[in-house]
Amino acid sequence: MSSDSAAGDEQQGDQSAVWDVVVVGAGPAGASAAYAAAVAGRRVLLLEKAELPRYKTCGGGIIGPTRDALPPGFDLPLRDRVHAVTFSLGGRLARTRRSRTMLFGLVNRPEFDHALVESALKAGAELRTGVTVTRVEQHGPDVPDRRTVAVVLSGEERPVLAHAVVGADGSASRIGAHVGVRMDQVDLGLEAEIPVPESVAEDWAGRVLIDWGPLPGSYGWVFPKDGTLTVGVIARRGDGAATKRYLDDFIGRLGLAGFEPSVSSGHLTRCRADDSPLSRGRVLVCGDAAGLLEPWTREGISFALRSGRLAGEWAVRIAEASDAVEARRQALNYAFAIRSGLGVEMGVGRRLLRVFAKRPALIHAALTGFRPAWNVFARFTRGSTSLGDVVRTHPVARRVLDRLDKNGSPTT
User: Which of 1, 92, 192, 267 is deepest in the core (most CB within 10 A)?
Assistant: First the structure.
């Protein structure tokens, strides 16, 4: 994939050209936004600072909501299909639950993300890689009129101009800083990609491990992908040394310490505050840039795809807005769509995280010994329900969550 597309050359050659929508960041959120705007027939430019494909710290689990948010006809590059989950509590009390039907799939993120970008390009979006966005400006000498946003690129004299901008540039987003995104939960994820012999890989085929960890709100995972095991842990930021010890102990308990990782990486995940903005003027944010992910599991791919699609659709409407009042109205509609859908799921996830941080053994006992809890987990991973649906449509589940969460945030 070329780092300079034909449209990128056009933009460089004609600095007065204005894109309908510019999307910053070519991860799942950005690719989804670019696809949504491009299929609407708009001129869309997708900007990415890295060369593609690039590695991303992520387990790569593709649950039902992720699958359902993919572009039509998208061919998922699955590396394994999960039919069994082993749960353990700090390495103890392990029990495996099995399903006759697939629970979810596993992908390598470089392949998956690259395929999403290709879908956006096939829909008509243009791509430029190897460019760093330093800031966006909605007023000033580089902005020709009130319907235009200037996207300033490092090392380039003139900015890229657009009628709407979507920020999908990750959890340390420059566009998010422009919008004023605020986070109220930050976690550290550490991960190792460990190539293993065929005999070890066969033992893990079709099965993942979830280990409830020693730190409040922490857990670890093993996701098999052909001959490689993705092994990781996540915990609240603040004690990186303890999180690293958890990963090392976890790998040791699994008998994998003798295998050399091909990749070792870390990443901060950030969840937005409830009242955090999602737009400013003609600029929207989505995915990690907006702090949109499920707070308990820290699952972010489905949130990225779903928020990216909505951002792309509403960016088109903002691009068409003739004045600031109409642009603001469309931005508020985007915010309402996010909060009424993904925001509800995040609210339930926050409550589950509080319960889990206080009583991980209870969560473990429910999933391993109480079939209705396992059935809900299985339905959630398949996409036949959501956390919001469970609480909204099951009075017993709502009462149990209310009772367990009545004491508020845990002591950490």
Answer: 192
